[in-house]
Amino acid sequence: RSTLSPSSAASDVYKRQLNDLSMGPIRGLEDVKLALLCMAVDRNIRGLLIRGPSGVGKTAVMRAVAECAMDSEPVNLPINTTEAQVYGSLDIESALESGKATLSPGLLHRANGTFLCIDDINLFDRRFVRALMGTVIDGNVRVEREGISGSYTCDTSVVATMNLRETVLGSAVSDLFDMSVTVHGSDDPGFRADVVRINLDGAVHDRVREWGDVRDRVHEARELMSHVLVPDNILRLISESSSEFGCPGHRGEISSVRVAMSLAALDGRTTVSRGDAVSAMKLCLGHCLLYTSPS
């Protein structure tokens, strides 16, 4: 089990890349930044679960990367949002009068091309979350009412956060996410003082908007993705690791391959390396291990 050590997915190589990308206003959270950039590069990576205490910047970094790399603000899904607000609704009276259904799209339509942010996802109804993730993964929203239906395309990725001290999410829901990152607050007084200093500066949001190099790197990586190759030995490494850790289904290895390809593309390479694969598996298989009993 030496393939996946508990160390950060952001190895020294990727940390240097993140530093080169001038993410100065957001301190720490390298694994979260790395995962979000991969989601921005490959739109087929549909879910990221961020676990950690309140106040460490989980939501802030997601919004910053969305505005910079996705060129749009993320859409927030509050708790107690109704299904009609999420998926949309049909105007039945209009359909009866004109014979044509009028569909008013919901939050999922607004989230097309950006992140759908769900804070405290562990407090949401489990069935609601499973249905939502199923729709996002499928990429198509279908609304039905009294025998009349309508549909629209859904092209978004879910970034969900949860507090480790609150209700456990459970494997039935967490397994629907491609990636999972656990973050912790820093005990380093210097780091903590730096975070306070940046926030007191009052210009963090404006400085985030200046991350032009991040935007350029993501756009270049998107163009490169179709040329990225995954060697057979890397595929085997990922498949063997997924099997070894007892990951259910194939989502873990498929996600690992996509993330590894994104990491290679972000580095300007067309061949996935072992380092890409190991870092990707740390992001994609970790939540599988939380619910797997040791053999």
Textual characterization of the structure:
There is one protein chain. The chain is α/β, with parallel strands linked by helices and 295 residues long. Helices cover 48% and strands 14% of the residues. β6 and β7 form a beta hairpin. α2 packs across α11 and α12 packs across α13. The longest helix has 16 residues. It is globular and about 65 Å long. The mean pLDDT is 82.
Radius of gyration: 20 Å
Task: Write down the secondary-structure element order.
Answer: HHEHEHEHEHEHEEEHEHHHHHHH
Query: Which strand order do you get reading across the main beta sheet?
Result: 2-5-8-1-9
Give the helix proportion (percent range): 40-55%
Reported for the largest beta sheet, the result is: 5 strands, parallel
* Termini gap: 11 Å
Structural class: alpha/beta
Regions with little confidence, pLDDT below 50 for 5+ residues: none
Q: Kindly state the mean pLDDT as a whole number? A: 82
Number of helices: 15
What is the number of beta strands? 9
Q: Into which percentage range does the β-strand content fall?
A: 5-15%
Q: In one word, what is the shape?
A: globular
